[in-house]
Amino acid sequence: MKVSILLVITSAILFVSCEKNYRFKLETPKTVTNNGKFTAKLTEINNQPIDSVLYSLDGKPASKNNSFDLSNARLGQHTVTAIVFYAGNKNKSVLNTVMKLAEKAPKFYSYEIVNTYNHDKTAFTQGLEFHDGYLYESTGQKGESNIRKVELKTGNVLKSKKIDAAYFGEGSTIFNNKIHMLTWQSNLGFVFDLESFEKEGTFTYGKSVEGWGLTHDTKYLIKSDGSKRLWFLDPKTHKEIKFIEAYTNKISTSKGINKLNELEYVKGKVYANVWQKNFILIINPSDGTIEGVVDLKGLQQKAGQSGENNVLNGIAYDAENDKLFVTGKRWEKLFEIKLKEK
Known about the structure:
Distance between the termini: 86 Å
CATH architecture of the largest domain: 6 Propeller
Mean pLDDT: 91
Strand content: over 45%
CATH superfamily of the largest domain: TolB, C-terminal domain
Low-confidence stretches: 1-18
Number of domains: 2
Helix content: under 10%
CATH topology of the largest domain: Neuraminidase
Shape: elongated
Structural class: mainly beta
CATH class of the largest domain: Mainly Beta
């Protein structure tokens, strides 16, 4: 009996020792760009035998053994998984991340003021849109939040509707004659009739959690949530279909990009305010490439404001006349500007 026990103990020690001898290493590139083809390689550091390896990228199997292609994927972090089978019936998952970055550095722009208009200096501007000759604006702060129709040349508020004081209003956009409006941390959005401002429905968020900015292309509502992500929503169901993340061509500069706020869709690109910063990012909505940075220093002071809260926040675009408008939180001015490449 003592011999049998000794054999069992010895076998267990040998098994544990054998298990510890297996050390796996998954090799992938740290970064890729638009030509995002690469291969992954898993090795056993101690030259122990491996039965087989199954590779996948973001949960999808490799197309050809251990080859991958991120050329049409969004920018940002992607996960390579290798499931290695060894020692007969053992298996283990080994993970690595690959960062896809923009191919080129962004262009930098300054601005020229074309026209200056009055703006309600009590408005904590969250969303701004130009539609059929008028500005439509949503404002924030609990007890102050509303949607409004504004005359461009005078800044006069022609129509407004208060939002329940329980909600902190955020970005808004007009799609199919409906005003879609976000609230900040209540996980709730509203839909209003464009003409009457009567509320027609509500919607909740998904993984995006918070509501910050809102715009749209021809197919989707595009939503920011205070991170570097832009979410694409079905305009009927408001379900999140996909997302992109904003990146430059360098990890060092991309890490600091977050707090994307008010949005506007301009000539196929998304213009995004960054909270507490007086600049705009120009983002390619197909993958998240930051193609431009617009430095709007000086406008805050010209609009009678200062500080880190009452900053630039409001972008509107008149597509028919190719005019770009910007304003900010509690600014007394709204500006039509033209961008000038530095």
